[in-house]
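Fill in residues.
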């Protein structure tokens, strides 16, 4: 019961607290604290005269607060967001501030406001803050630090307050704002606020500019060994990279030959036919290419393990060549509510694959559904990289099935730090949590 009341109080504080804290400057907090102290010490007006100082400070705070209504800034804002950013990597973007009023504006500050996403009661009870075990028993019991961590994680981004340079009448200034995405997925931005001080810089007034927007945050990524080669790169498949992108014939021209019964008219080489006086046919040779597949086990429950699996998949997608030699097609296979297959030829759909990973949630389907889809797709594979969250009978059967179909396999198995997987085959690697970066860098 008490924790329920605490949770509701935390939610009310989260909705209103940030805007209230912005209203007070450091100087204003100092004066306000002095007023409270003077009020407490000056209760007995016959004993001392401190109550007069209390009255002076109270009038000062009230008067400066009222002045904020007299000169709000007249400005307009325009936000320039990047197309996408990466979780865990700070980025900069610009907001253009234009002075549309009739006076010079100075000492303004700019705040971009994300939509505050409150955690659910179930998340508050079940999810634990990283390092929470090191906190004292009281902090763990009231759960304030856990709630604030969940609040930041659900909101998805932290945005720093930026200072606006002095704006002359009609001038525009591009203000750089620093942001840091905390999770993958879509981050919603609600509005922008301009803060302006009173004459004594005790309070800050706020002018809000509703400008909803959203920002795509791609999964965090690790550096992959640049010498890492996907398995099966030397096993060609008929069709060619161009064939996978074209609707008509994309085979390579080889030679000319005489017409045979049944040859299509599209294959006739008309200039040579005119010179010889009889139909001449163009002969083609099918191009060959190596086709890779990246299979992600998205049946894991939403947890640190699930997030690390997505990060590994994103790292491998961007760690491969996207042009020139070695830029073979890469298929991404995973489960959502159904089986999802996103093909990429030469890096043209990598962003589409990363976007799918950014918005991916844990699938309610069984791993066997993913295994069956992978085996059906095996005839098109030269090699397959599996990103798994466990090493059970179903996972081992999938690896054995791919080997039986002559598909080169590399299985990357994520596991908790305390778990050691013994007797792993040579084409399987364990990725303990906390050591994922080191293992990927040494592949």
């Amino acid at each position: 019961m008490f924790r329920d009341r605490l949770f509701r109080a935390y939610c009310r504080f989260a909705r209103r607290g940030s805007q209230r804290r912005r209203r007070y400057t450091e100087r204003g907090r100092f004066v306000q604290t002095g007023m409270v102290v003077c009020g407490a010490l000056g209760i007995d007006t016959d004993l001392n005269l401190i109550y007069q100082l209390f009255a002076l400070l109270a009038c000062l705070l009230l008067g400066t607060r009222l002045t904020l209504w007299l000169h709000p800034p007249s400005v307009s804002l325009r936000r320039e967001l990047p197309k996408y950013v990466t979780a865990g990597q700070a980025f900069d973007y610009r907001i253009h501030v234009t002075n549309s009023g009739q006076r010079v504006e100075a000492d303004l500050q700019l705040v971009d406001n994300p939509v505050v996403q409150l955690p659910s009661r179930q998340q508050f009870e079940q999810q634990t803050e990283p390092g929470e075990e090191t906190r004292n028993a009281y902090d763990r019991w009231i759960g304030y630090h856990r709630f604030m961590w969940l609040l930041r994680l659900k909101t998805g981004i932290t945005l720093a307050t930026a200072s606006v340079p002095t704006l002359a009448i009609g001038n525009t200034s591009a203000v750089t704002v620093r942001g840091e995405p905390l999770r993958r997925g879509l981050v919603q931005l609600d509005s922008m606020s301009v803060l302006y001080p009173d004459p004594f810089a005790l309070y800050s007034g706020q002018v809000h500019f509703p400008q909803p927007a959203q920002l795509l945050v791609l999964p965090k990524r690790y550096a992959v060994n640049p010498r890492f080669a996907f398995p099966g790169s030397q096993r060609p498949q008929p069709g060619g990279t161009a064939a996978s992108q074209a609707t008509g014939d994309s085979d390579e021209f080889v030679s000319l030959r005489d017409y045979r019964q049944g040859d299509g008219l599209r294959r006739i080489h008309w200039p040579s036919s005119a010179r010889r006086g009889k139909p001449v046919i163009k002969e083609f040779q099918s191009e060959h290419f190596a086709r890779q597949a990246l299979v992600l086990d998205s049946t894991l429950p939403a947890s640190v393990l699930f997030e690390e699996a997505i990060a590994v998949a994103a790292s491998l997608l961007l760690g491969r060549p996207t042009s020139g030699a070695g830029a073979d097609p890469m298929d991404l296979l995973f489960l959502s509510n159904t089986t999802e297959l996103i093909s990429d030829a030469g890096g043209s759909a990598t962003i589409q694959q990363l976007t799918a990973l950014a918005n991916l949630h844990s699938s309610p389907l069984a791993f066997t559904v993913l295994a069956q889809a992978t085996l059906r797709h095996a005839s098109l594979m030269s090699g397959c990289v599996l990103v798994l969250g466990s090493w059970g009978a179903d996972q081992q059967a999938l690896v054995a099935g791919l080997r039986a179909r002559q598909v080169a396999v590399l299985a990357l198995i994520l596991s908790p730090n305390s778990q050691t997987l013994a007797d792993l085959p040579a084409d399987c690697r364990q990725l303990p949590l906390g050591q994922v970066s080191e293992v990927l860098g040494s592949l």
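The chain has three domains: 2-117+156-218, 237-287, 289-441.
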